[in-house]
Amino acid sequence: xxxxxxxxxxxxxxxxxxxxxxxxxxxxxxxxxxxxxxxxxxxxxxxxxxxxxxxxxxxxxxxxxxxxxxxxxxxxxxxxxxxxxxxxxxxxxxxxxxxxxxxxxxxxxxxxxxxxxxxxxxxxxxxxxxxxxxxxxxxxxxxxxxxxxxxxxxxxxxxxxxxxxxxxxxxxxxxxxxxxxxxxxxxxxxxxxxxxxxxx
Length: 200
Known about the structure:
Radius of gyration: 18 Å
CATH topology of the largest domain: Quinone Oxidoreductase, Chain A, domain 1
Strand order of the largest sheet: 6-3-4-5-7
Shape: globular
Structural class: alpha+beta
Strand content: 15-25%
CATH class of the largest domain: Alpha Beta
Number of domains: 2
Helix content: 10-25%
CATH superfamily of the largest domain: Medium-chain alcohol dehydrogenases, catalytic domain
């Protein structure tokens, strides 16, 4: 199986292609063929070795992706071969309040991520891929989209007619802009260039 690993602390030079054994799903697990991986600023921070987000070396980076089920372990009935799914950012955060135990299991941090051909994940942590999205589009959902949704609708209790300020044109800001408009909010956005302003 082809994969990429962060093998050192020299920034992009430390990101190396490697060949690893193909993983096998255990009880309650699913084997996915990774078809698309999206990049977040967190991934850059990991490759650069910025404290607070980097984990042990060598480590496979990236948390967000989408793929197809290629095998299921015992006791898995919710998924079948060929299902298209979105990979979780934090596989153990299935419900309730966020805590540091969930953060410690975030893919691409302390735990190997998904910048590889195949990955085994807990079956209960996967989500069905929205049918109207491409694999590439769906791969952007776990980190940026969930962060924006949480900020607006869980912590912010956004209501129609309210005003939302988004900073810049990163993934979280773009999702926040879209979600806020869909909710009937007024959006103010900052950006550094006229071209980006027109796109916004």
